[in-house]
Design brief:
The protein is α/β, with parallel strands linked by helices and 281 residues long. The chain is 47% helix and 14% strand. The structure holds (6S)-5,6,7,8-tetrahydrofolate.
């Protein structure tokens, strides 16, 4: 299955049969005090620097999250999108729990964005599916519903099916629904990663949709997070993860290696390209 996203002109295809696509996570105020401080001053230069460095590290899509307590992201998210699109031709993933912010950003965005995110709560489906349809956006569907988060992978699969079914009935193409299996901290629940990996396998095998997830959520609260993230990322890709939201400076090498060993990189062309681009920096 193929999901196409677009910047102003540039198309990115997320293909369940193709190489892994990297959605850069770094435009996110989590632990980035400088981003909050500069955005509060309506200064987008640091955000643009974060975009630039992620693009150099081979991000294919940029996640844009400008939400923090006290901010009106209905105003800030569209401004951030405009500033990014004036400089860069890379598809954007609009990351906000506020549907009004998503809608305001889609109004000014060029190309075809990814909405991050919709879930199976009735309010979310009713509010966001018509918006996605109106602006021709793709969506990330988080597998939680009005009963909350289940720890049963079969139930998470059924929630994914529900989101896809409702999206298609709202006029969205099936391939424009990317499923998020809900990666959560393994420090809080020893079973968290196993449940999510099994969900990835089920969604891949039975539905064949593209799959995303936050790459570093799982290691919150633990030391030496990169080892945990890398082990989990490799297993997730094996099971069917196709477009992680991650820090490209940390993940691209692993992603290229995973594509190579899974026979998605003939003659190691992309692997070597990344190695050489690293030498230049
Ligand atoms: N699924 C979907 N969207 C998501 C997530 C998900 N969006 C948000 C989040 N999870 C993914 N994005 C981030 C962004 C930053 C960090 C983690 C996840 C992060 N930042 C570093 C830290 O906290 O140590 C700081 C910056 C850095 O050093 O890179 O961890 O799961 N659909």
């Amino acid at each position: 299955m193929r999901t196409t996203l677009k910047g102003k002109t540039k198309e990115v295809i997320i293909d369940t049969e193709g190489p892994v696509i990297i959605i850069g996570e770094c435009i996110n105020p989590t632990r980035r005090k400088k981003l909050v401080a500069t955005l509060e001053a309506h200064d987008f230069s640091y955000m643009l620097e974060l975009a630039e460095s992620q693009i150099s590290a081979l991000a294919d899509v940029l996640d844009v999250n400008v939400g923090y307590p006290g901010v009106d992201d209905e105003v800030l998210l569209p401004q951030a999108v405009k500033a990014l699109q004036e400089r860069f031709d890379i598809p954007l993933c609009l990351d906000s729990p506020n549907p009004r912010a998503i809608e305001a950003a889609l109004k000014v965005a060029e190309g075809k964005c990814l909405i991050n995110s919709v879930n199976a709560e009735e309010a979310s489906l009713q509010r966001l599916l018509p918006v996605a349809r109106e602006y021709g956006a793709a969506i990330i569907g988080l597998v939680l519903d009005d009963d909350g988060i289940t720890h049963d992978p079969e139930k998470r699969l059924r929630i994914a099916e529900k989101i896809i079914d409702r999206a298609v009935r709202a006029g969205i193409k099936e391939e424009d629904v990317i499923i998020d299996p809900l990666a959560m901290a393994v420090s809080a629940d020893p079973d968290a990663c196993r449940v999510t990996l099994e969900t990835i396998r089920l969604v891949h095998d039975r539905l064949g949709h593209n799959i995303t997830q936050g790459a570093s959520n799982i290691s919150f609260g633990l030391p030496d997070r990169e080892n945990i993230n890398n082990a989990y990322m490799a297993m997730s890709i094996m099971y069917g993860l196709t477009c992680p939201i991650a820090n490209p400076e940390k993940i691209t090498g692993l992603v290229r290696a995973a594509d190579l060993v899974l026979a998605r990189d003939d003659y190691a062309i992309r692997y070597i390209e990344h190695y050489q681009s690293n030498l230049k920096h």
